[in-house]
Amino acid sequence: MKSSRATKRKKANKKRSAVKFDKGDYILVAVAEPRNLSKLEPRWNGPYRITEVVSDWVFVTKHLVSKAEETVHASCIQFYSHETSM
Fold this sequence. Notes:
86 residues; mainly beta; SH3 type barrels; five-stranded antiparallel β-sheet; 36% strand
């Protein structure tokens, strides 16, 4: 008999979709700011370009304007598109 935890995990994972980021993708990076109007709504900075894939979850990025490099986790990034920047 399966444990309750394993059953719930399997059911929750069916709803998740894996997002794959690759080298060269343009992304936005979430920045937590204490002065946001809503603490649940992050501010997105960018655009950045992924310059190196360290693992499936960790990426080295480079800001396109300032050329600053930053290591970020996949949970803090989203794909950049012209519509998301407006």
